[in-house]
Amino acid sequence: MRFVVVLSLLLAGLGVAGCKGGGSPMRDATGDGVAVACEMCSPNATCVQAGGATIDGGADAAVATDESGADDAGVDSEADAPIDDAADGDVDDGDVDADASDDASDAISTNAVAATGTCVCNPGFTGDGITCTDVAAGLSGLRWELPCGADLGGHVCAATTAVSMTALKGDVGKTYNVTLRFRGVVEQRTYTGGTTDGYWVAGALAPTSGDAFNIYQLGISSPAQTFYLNAGASSIYRCFAIDYQETIAMAAGAIVTLTADAVDGHEIENLDMTTDPANPIIVPGVQPAPAAYNGQFIQMDVLSVVAQ
To answer: 198 CB contacts (<8 Å, ≥6 apart)?
Structure first.
């Protein structure tokens, strides 16, 4: 009889260990709001519990409680086999041991019981809560780059226009306010019209080739918008370090286009002409710092994404 009891307890213990939470659903793969074990939520999700309490998702969300293996008030269901306690002098006398030996039997059925709730992706992420995708992952770290080619004299070098594209992820039909940080080294250019905020200008007239200074352009397909990133005055033969942030409305699926246009195939070398001798400009925390970039560039990093 005692061996049947022991086997039953062992099986029960294994069952609990295999499905934390007493066999309740472990994940809400269909996104229907059924409570799941919070440890199954994405690390980029929040587990919303009954009553509105929240905890971070991910593997650390389990709550260590002993609901399934609570102390059974001094009843050791293993009796004296195979381990007896000191109270019997290690002699198997067929009795039921007191509470002092209860730990061994409880250890079999004691398990951490996972907290449960509904997995909700954090702001800036999209998905069912089990899997959450960074909406703007494709934008962060993108760069406009015009590396210096042949030295043309007079602190000018050859440069070639470069274009890159990506797409904003997100839920179909949603628009997101995306806050971006722009850092780099550029020459200035005069833009006409639009709204200017430092080096940033929105809605300017399309530049023409009559002005040979570089164009740094950011295009958004939906809602359709065009921005320029190096607003200032053309014909200044030096580079400037930039570091600013702007917030742009972008629809899910919008195509984002970065254009670095070396209008005449030339660019000003990365030099700060206010020093003697002129030194290259280094942007701290941006590659290739602590070295200087050989040419002009802008790096774009995502600071936040909030659904409208």
So the answer is: 231, 244
Kindly give the parts of the chain with pLDDT less than 70. Answer: 1-35, 57-114
- Would you call 265 helix, strand, or coil by DSSP? coil
Count of beta carbons in the 10 Å neighbourhood of residue 157: 23
Q: Which residue has the tokens 């069952």?
A: 15
For 114, the token pair is 């996972």
Helix axes 2-18, 102-109, angle to 10 degrees: 40
Q: How many CB atoms neighbour CB 276 within 10 A?
A: 6
Q: How far is CA 167 from CA 129, 142, 226, 257, in A?
A: 22, 12, 15, 9
pLDDT (0 to 100) of residue 192: 96
- 288 Cβ contact list (under 8 Å, min separation 6): none
Alpha-carbon distance of 21 to 37, in angstroms, equals 7
Burial of 160 (0-12, 13-18, 19+ CB in 10 A): exposed
Tell me, rounded to whole angstroms, the distance of Cα 180 from its chain centroid: 14
Which pLDDT score is estimated for 117? 86
Please check whether residue 60 is in contact with residue 39, taking contact to mean a CB–CB distance below 8 angstroms: yes
Q: What does the pLDDT read at residue 53? A: 77
CB 96 within 8 A of CB 87: no
Length of the chain: 308
> 112 is written with which tokens?
């951490």
Task: Mark residue 286 as left, alpha or beta (left: phi above 0; alpha: psi -120 to 50; beta: remaining).
Answer: beta
Tell me how far apart the alpha carbons of residues 190 and 213 are, in angstroms, rounded to a whole number: 8
b/e code 112-130 from CB counts within 10 Å (16+ = b): bbbbbbbbbbbebbbbbbb
* Strand duo 62-63 + 224-228: pairing: unpaired
